[in-house]
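Need residues for this backbone.
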């Protein structure tokens, strides 16, 4: 497979009610084909989030956007453009970071930023951290490549997002 320069074409899914921002690294080939985040059928993002938020798993892009908006969750990716081979995170080079500091400034209700996987965390710390006061919390990747984590094990880690949302289900305290 050949390395290509790819520009991220999805807008961030945020509004003025967004309380948390979940950042991935860069959309997979399948996501780019489907023109929306976490579009690979084996990616567990939508199933996991629906489980945590105790709602139905969204099927359409509009249902996904509605679930996010209803619960104060925003999504975007750390990379605006890069050189990449297929969907391989390990092949990513020549990163141009997304304008996350500007987004955080435009949406001051965002209380916390979470990384969907270690690469998103690493890139955020390298490119974004020096330009903002908002730190990132890494969560295990929902990618099918992260087979070490079952859906239940992912949920144990991801439930911490509820601390920042109005809905405190599953959170002690």
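Answer:
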């Amino acid at each position: 497979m050949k390395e290509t320069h790819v520009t991220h074409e999805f807008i961030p899914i945020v509004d003025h009610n967004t309380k948390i921002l979940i950042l991935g690294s860069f959309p997979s080939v399948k996501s780019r084909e489907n023109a929306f985040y976490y579009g690979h059928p084996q990616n567990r993002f939508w199933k996991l989030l629906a489980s945590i938020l105790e709602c139905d798993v969204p099927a359409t892009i509009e249902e996904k956007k509605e679930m996010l908006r209803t619960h104060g969750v925003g999504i975007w990716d750390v990379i605006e453009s890069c050189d990449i081979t297929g969907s391989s995170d390990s092949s990513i080079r020549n990163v141009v970071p997304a304008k996350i500091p500007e987004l955080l400034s435009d949406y001051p209700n965002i209380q916390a930023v979470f990384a969907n996987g270690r690469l998103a965390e690493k890139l955020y710390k390298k490119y974004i951290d020096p330009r903002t006061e908002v730190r990132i919390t890494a969560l295990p990747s929902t990618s099918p490549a992260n087979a070490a984590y079952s859906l239940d094990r992912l949920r144990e880690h991801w439930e911490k997002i509820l601390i920042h949302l109005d809905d405190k289900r599953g959170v002690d305290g």
